[in-house]
Write a structure and sequence with these properties.
Elements: E1 5-11, H1 17-28, E2 34-38, H2 39-43, H3 53-61, H4 63-76, E3 81-85, H5 90-99, E4 104-109, H6 112-120, H7 129-142, H8 145-151, E5 154-157, H9 162-176
Parallel strand pairs: 1-3, 1-4, 2-3, 4-5
Helix pairs in contact: 1-9, 4-5
């Protein structure tokens, strides 16, 4: 296994996890340096399978299966840094900690009103606020977010603006990544 710098990103639905990783990519020089791997892409892989079908199968097989798929994806990336966006299982985080020395998780937090506003701004979305709240409740039943947040090495709170996020990204990159490149 090639040595890579792997960082996990977790947080509730629409907290700004992907926005955070895109900001890291921008700050560190783009996709040639930092790969953005999303859990959703692994769970919904396959253009011919309906969205969620593979996710349901993976949930049935458990976190060890998902972690193995994730490691395959990480190793397929040609970048020195890989951010895994959307970590939901403590067991997967544990596997990644064992597989990648120095691995840690970053928790992204955003207030409920900001997350709901992001939900409302999704293009071509027909679901209403009640579906957002149902998704939130569903994920809270499935995943132990309080334990993931408590175990995160870094916790970042966003207010939904790129201007507020960039100084936090810069600090994180300068403290935790630049010296490793």
């Amino acid at each position: 296994m090639a040595i890579k710098i792997v960082r996990g990103v977790s947080g509730r639905v629409y907290a700004g996890k992907s926005s955070f990783v895109r900001a890291v990519q921008e700050y560190l020089g783009g996709g040639e340096i930092v790969a953005h791997l999303t859990s959703a892409a692994i769970m919904n892989r396959g253009p011919d399978s309906p969205r969620g079908e593979l996710r349901d199968i993976i949930h049935g097989l458990g976190p060890e299966f998902f972690a193995a798929r994730m490691i395959e994806e990480i190793e397929s990336r040609q970048t020195p840094i890989v951010f895994v966006d959307g970590l939901r299982w403590l067991d997967v985080i544990g596997v990644l900690q064992r597989a990648y020395p120095g691995f840690f998780c970053i928790w992204i937090e955003a207030p409920l009103n900001i997350r709901m506003e992001r939900w409302r701004n999704i293009p071509n979305k027909i679901e209403g606020d009640e579906n957002f709240l149902a998704l939130e409740e569903y994920e809270n039943r499935l995943y132990d977010f309080s334990a993931i947040k408590a175990g995160a090495t870094v916790q970042i709170t966003t207010d939904g603006t790129k201007e507020a996020l960039l100084p936090k990204v810069k600090f994180l990159c300068d403290v935790y990544l630049r010296a490793l490149l």
